[in-house]
């Protein structure tokens, strides 16, 4: 019998329980995989708290990497022994083994480790759609990314710099500021000591930003709107500090005919062709050295509760993985 983390009732980190779990056998179009590493993300926290509602009991987690053990009928292009990774909605990753739809799996190149793959599928493909699809960043753009030293932030800083943008970030400590600067950010604002809106205005000499990527939510709204030039785009893709409060849509016109969107990765990779494109571009960025994926924290799967406490307490930086 294998082990998995289950949530029986939404709540705090203590809701994460290590239990026996039988993954079963793969059916038609499915594969059984053994996880080697599991990515830790804020979406896992949202699932645990009930913000992203899943039917209880459930196994949380969106991304992992491992090895194919068996495949069901109708599966082509995968065989036992293949190294694979995935990012899916609906949980299921906090387990030693799982059965999953085979069309959600992508092959992992030899040059990329299991830990790197597990820790970058959600965050890396999120950066892909943010920079390449939601607002296609081009040379000369000025962008602002909150939580610059987080998992998404560190990847975004490197990738956006490669695309020719001026990259501004926010962070909460000198250590995180230095980390962000080492990962492509041109300027990093300590939002605990500075008004980030005023700092952005000064850094850009009043020209402000083409786009703001905001995963913080409540604490950075509506300040993020004030960092945008006319016709700029506000991209809200997370809410680590709480939900963005309801606002009158006319606020966007008052602040310069702004665009606002609330995207989610799983819409962008719903089609198999889009998933393959996202993974291909991400793997290429990592293999070329443009984007470096460094694992800053590792926890045993059995200590998932401690990992969640540290993530919510802003004690982690960059990429964190759970090891089964």
Automatic annotation (TrEMBL):
Q: Where is the signal peptide?
A: none
Q: Which UniProt keywords apply?
A: NADP, Oxidoreductase
The record's annotation in InterPro entries points to: ADH-like_C, ADH-like_N, ER, GroES-like_sf, NAD(P)-bd_dom_sf, QOR-like, Quin_OxRdtase/zeta-crystal_CS
The Enoyl reductase (ER) domain is annotated at: 11-322
Q: Which residues form a coiled coil?
A: none
Could you confirm whether the keyword Transmembrane helix appears in this record? Answer: no
Q: Which domain of life is it from?
A: Bacteria
One GO molecular-function annotation for this sequence? zinc ion binding
Q: Which GO terms describe its cellular component?
A: cytosol
PANTHER family associated with the record: QUINONE OXIDOREDUCTASE PIG3-RELATED, QUINONE OXIDOREDUCTASE-RELATED
Q: What is the protein name given in its UniProt record?
A: Quinone oxidoreductase
Q: Which organism is it from?
A: Chelativorans petroleitrophicus
């Amino acid at each position: 019998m294998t082990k998995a983390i289950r949530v029986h009732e939404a709540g705090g980190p203590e809701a994460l329980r290590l239990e026996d779990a039988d993954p079963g056998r793969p059916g038609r179009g499915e594969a059984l995989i053994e996880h080697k590493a599991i990515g830790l993300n804020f979406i896992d926290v949202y699932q645990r708290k009930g913000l992203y509602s899943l039917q209880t009991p459930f196994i949380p987690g969106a991304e992992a990497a491992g090895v194919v053990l068996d495949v069901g009928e109708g599966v082509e292009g995968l065989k036992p022994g293949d190294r694979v990774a995935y990012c899916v909605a609906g949980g299921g990753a906090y387990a030693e083994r799982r059965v999953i739809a085979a069309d959600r799996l992508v092959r992992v190149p030899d040059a990329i480790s299991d830990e790197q793959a597990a820790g970058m599928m959600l965050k890396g493909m999120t950066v892909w759609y943010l920079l390449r699809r939601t607002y296609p960043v081009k040379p000369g753009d000025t962008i602002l990314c909150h939580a610059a030293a987080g998992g998404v932030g560190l990847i975004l800083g490197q990738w956006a710099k490669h695309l020719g943008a001026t990259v501004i970030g926010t962070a909460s400590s000198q250590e995180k500021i230095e980390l962000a600067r080492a990962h492509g950010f041109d300027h990093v604002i300590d939002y605990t000591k500075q008004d980030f809106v005023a700092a952005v205005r000064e850094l850009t000499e009043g020209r402000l930003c083409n786009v703001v990527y905001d995963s913080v939510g409540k604490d950075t709204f509506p300040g993020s709107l004030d960092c945008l030039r006319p016709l700029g785009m506000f991209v809200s893709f997370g809410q680590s500090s709480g939900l963005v409060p309801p606002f009158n849509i006319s606020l966007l016109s008052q602040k310069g005919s702004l665009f606002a969107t609330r995207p989610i990765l799983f819409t962008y990779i719903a089609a198999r062709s889009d998933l393959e494109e996202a993974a291909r571009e991400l793997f290429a960025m990592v293999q070329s050295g443009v984007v470096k994926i460094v694992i800053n924290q590792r926890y045993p799967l059995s200590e998932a509760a401690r990992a969640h406490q540290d993530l919510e307490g802003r004690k982690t930086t960059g990429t964190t993985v759970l090891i089964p």
